Amino acid sequence: QLQLVESGGGLVQPGGSLRLSCAASGFTFDYYAIGWFRQAPGKEREGVSCISSSGGRTNYADSVKGRFTISRDNAKNMVYLQMNRLKPEDSAVYYCAADPRRSTCPDPVYWGQGTQVTVSS
Q1: Residue 121, Cα to own-chain centre: how many angstroms?
Q2: CA torsion angle for 92, 95, 101, 107 (degrees, to 10)?
Q3: CA separation (Å) from 20 to 2, 30, 47, 72?
Q4: At 120, is the pLDDT very low, low, confident or very high (cuts 50, 70, 90)?
Q5: Are 90 and 119 in contact (CB under 8 A)?
Q6: pLDDT number for residue 94
Q7: Torsion 105-109-112-117 (CA) sign
Q8: Which of 75, 85, 94, 117 places its Cα 20 to 30 Å from the Cα of 42?
Q9: How far are the Cα atoms of 44, 60, 94 from residue 107, in angstroms, in the given order?
Q10: What stretches of the chain show up as alpha helix (H) in DSSP?
Q11: Are 24 and 82 in contact (CB under 8 A)?
């Protein structure tokens, strides 16, 4: 059964850190680029970061550059998003998604259920 399962969300104070994890199963993981997306209430979903199938190429939204780091472990079918210096505007539901294009994430075909991140004092 195909699955993407996010974990690691929660409540954190501004300036704090969280590490999100995405566990994949049911498809050939290392054939897919994996992206992190987020959606805040009343806002459109936005791309946060993407990592290529090999892990050799990454990209980030300007709003998170220098604060977030994406990585993957193809041996474990896992993708991570390390989020540092979090801001209240980072609060959203975060989703991981798989894109068959291998090097970019413009149109993922598989999506997880999301994990809530709340940044508040």
Answers
A1: 23
A2: -60
A3: 20, 19, 15, 11
A4: very high
A5: yes
A6: 98
A7: positive
A8: 85
A9: 15, 16, 16
A10: none
A11: no
Tell me: the pLDDT tens digits for 38-90? 999 999 999 999 999 999 999 999 999 999 999 999 999 999 999 999 999 99
Read off the amino acid at residue 95: Y
For residue 17, give every residue at least 6 positions away whose Cβ sits within 8 Å of its Cβ, in sequence order, or none.
Answer: 82, 83, 84, 85, 86
> Tell me: the pLDDT tens digits for 90-115?
999 999 999 999 999 999 999 999 99
* Residue 82 DSSP label: E
Q: Rounded to the nearest 5 degrees, what angle is found at the Cα of 35, between the Cα atoms of 49 and 66?
A: 15
**Single-letter amino acid code for the residue at 74:** N
For the chain, strand residue ranges (E) read 3-7, 10-12, 18-25, 33-39, 46-51, 58-60, 68-73, 78-83, 92-99, 110-111, 115-119
Contact 33, 50 (CB under 8 A): yes
In degrees, to the nearest 5, what angle opens at C-alpha 38 toward C-alphas 35 and 42?
150
